[in-house]
Amino acid sequence: MARFDDSRPEMSAEEFRLLRDHVYSHCGILVHEDMKFVMERRLWPRLEVLGAPDFSAYHRYLRYDANRHVELEAAVESLTTHETYFFREPSQLKAFREELLPILEKRNARTRRLRLWSAGCSSGEEAYTLAMLLKDERRFDDWDVEVYGTDISRRVLAMARRAEYGPSALRATSADLLERFFLPTGHAKVRVRDEVRAMVSFGHHNLLDEAGSQLVAKMDAVFCRNVMIYFDQAARRKVLRILRDRLVPGGYLLLGHSENLLNLGADFELVHLRGDLVYRRPELPGLLGSEPR
Ligand SMILES: C[S@@+](CC[C@H](N)C(=O)[O-])C[C@H]1O[C@@H](n2cnc3c(N)ncnc32)[C@H](O)[C@@H]1O
Questions:
Q1: Cβ count near 285 (within 10 Å)
Q2: Distance 234 CA to ligand 1 centre (A)
Q3: pLDDT at residue 289, rounded to an integer
Q4: 117 alpha carbon to ligand 1 midpoint, in Å?
């Protein structure tokens, strides 16, 4: 059905439902009913690119076309939020640094190895922030330290690998940190220094992909901040189960400040630090009354 003010097709309630369900089952992001207009507006350009006459045709393309996987990524890209910046949620980072890192240092003293994961890393600021925190902690200088950043969006991963940032990404970065960890590029941007970049690697990963997650190494801590806020309970539960499985026993999960595991029945222990609340995979299987799945 055409709008009276332009020739762009309107999204019917049924088309909305089909597209919403398709996106949800792929990546866990639930577009609410009252966001139909937003979905319509964000997907119009995709219809134009493909020459699809309406949203039903677009849905058919997403389901059956040989190129459907590429297009689904483009659709998800247009519906996701990638907002992030360096040193986001400083009180949590302080708690991580002052309270969790000493525990991890002691626990891994024999292997001298540390693995951190920024799950839903967007353009890389969170992963680089973690690498910078570790660099600052001279105690890990001769350790085998790796930070992984993964995201469902290849566009933001390309930005993460480029490692060049402007003022918005640096709004919570002090002059001192800027000086120590970044180099000017000459066009109002800075670049993360090579010694920090060398600690971080990026990869494409859908957090709902259970089989793909088996390829992720076991982690000492996972930061999954401000990712599941767009998911419903069922998708959150699934992601939490997958993340739990990727943590070593006793490994930590750090969520964003507006998120918690209430009512999710996830098999994590709540840990009260002086400066924050974090979650931990129990040391012993079955400690919380359920075996690891
Ligand atoms: C708002 S950003 C958060 C970035 C960073 N964690 C932070 O807190 O600053 C959310 C990111 O999650 C990613 N994302 C959304 N659904 C995902 C999924 N199913 N698998 C992996 N990444 C996903 C988005 O592409 C986006 O880059």
A1: 12
A2: 17
A3: 46
A4: 13
Type of residue numbered 237:
R
- How many secondary structure helices (H) and strands (E) does the chain include? 12, 10
pLDDT grade, residue 219 (50/70/90)?
A: very high
Q: Report the run of H or E that residue 48 belongs to, with start and end.
A: helix 36-50
- Ramachandran angles phi, psi of 103, nearest 5°: -65, -45
Q: Roughly how many angstroms between the first and final C-alpha of the chain, as a whole number?
A: 48
Cα(82) to centroid(ligand 1), Å: 6
Go through 13-25 and write b for each residue having 16 or more CB atoms within 10 A of its CB, e for each that does not. Answer: eebbebbbebbbe
Distance separating alpha carbons of residues 243 and 216, to the nearest angstrom: 10
266 Cα distance to chain centroid? 19
pLDDT exceeds cutoff 90 at 284: no
pTM of the model: 0.93
Protein residue with least CA distance to atom 3, ligand 1 = 226
pLDDT at 6: 65
DSSP 29: B
**Cα 103 to averaged position of ligand 1 atoms, centre (Å):** 27
**Residue 265 φ/ψ region, left for φ over 0, alpha for ψ in the -120 to 50 degree band, beta for the rest:** left
CA–centroid distance for 249 within its chain: 22
In short, whether 72's Cβ falls inside 6 Å of ligand 1 is no
Q: What is the DSSP string of 214-227?
A: TTSPPEEEEEE-SS
**Helix (H) / strand (E) containing 43:** helix 36-50
Residue having the nearest C-alpha atom to atom 19 of ligand 1: 27
Ligand 1 pocket member 255 (CB < 6 A):
no
Which one of 156, 227, 257 would you pick to mutate in the ligand 1 pocket, going by the greatest count of ligand atoms within 8 A of its CB?
227
